Amino acid sequence: MALNPLTEAASAAPSSGAAGAEGSGPDRRGLLPLLFAGNSVMYALYIGVGGILLPLQIEQITPHHKVAVLGLVSGVSAVFAALFNPVAGALSDRSGRRNPWILTGGLLAVPVMALMGAVNSVLLVGIAWCLGQAVMNVYQAAITSVVPDRIPVERRGAASAAVGLGMPVGSILGVLVANGFSDHFRTGYLTLGALVAAGAVLFTGLSREPKGSAGPQQPRQQPTLGQRAAAFTDSLRAHDFRWAFIGRALLVLGYFSVSGYQLYILQDHIALPHGMSPTGAVAILTPVASVAMLVSIAVCGPLSDRLDARKRFVGISAAAAGCAMVIPMLSPTFTGMAVFGVVNGLAFGCYMAVDTALVTLVLPRAEDAARDMGVLNIANAAPQIVAPFVASVVVGAAGYTTLFLVGGVLSILGALAVRPIRSVR
User: By the 8 A CB rule, do 146 and 31 touch?
Assistant: First the structure.
């Protein structure tokens, strides 16, 4: 396993992290904008494909079974996300490098997205999106690990905000691209893949990795598969890390149970103004929610650094995200969805701005930072495996109103899960 001195310094103590950060020189001044850009294009692909292009493509193939089929394709493909993220993180740890993995994942997005646009059956769409999840999680695992690698502890809130800003900006970009090419799947997929490739080239070209991170400091015996599995299990034995994992998993499950079906909700449940199409509604609602998220991220990230109260921010924002689900239950209209988007954007933006900083402070071991971040990212990927199946069953049995209720309860449980964390305020 590669020992990265900056990772060790950033995770060990604030003073050590700061020292390691300052030692990296001028490259650090441009790292936060690069993290923002790299995460923006990643979320553009995730949201543009998962939110618009994939549902539309499935509806075109099988309009009468779209809810169940979308749940199946999304769930199975998320298995690949759950498998590839920690594995890719562990491999980048072993190589001691992040940039080659970021570049490889980004460039491979182009041919995989080309495949997505070329297929026209449920089976082939599912296979292609599984490949897409695998490629994107190689990219995501590596770029996520840059924060504990190169950012000092006292700057984690600002770095988390830079990463978190990628979600609303990427969401707007992805929705605009997908909506613009909603009648031309192949061009839409290719455009999103090209954006990720460009982001990977930009990041790796302008962000040089610090000296000493090119590989293992000492040769080590290769662990067996059983030893690797035990190491992943060991990560979750750490008390605070385990509760951070549980909290994120519950919130993400609640969020994706609803957001994954936004297009179908607007098609089949929400009363839209005359002349407004569901994809047009998504193109309006996403920027509205994203602006709210941007404001929240910009305020909450630095404020959590100043107040040193990250756990409190995470818990309150997760609870607020759960409460926001009540709004479309009471008002299933476009206005209700717009208000929901604002409130949920503010809550989820605060969560995104602070939670990444929180989890980097509860990593069990500095030398295994990417592996442990990969394990934690299962809390992002695994709920996406379960969410489509849960959502399709809930919608089929009780309708979209109950889906909002389930999403809200899960988010509030996620807020309660951060309370047992002891090492972070």
Answer: yes
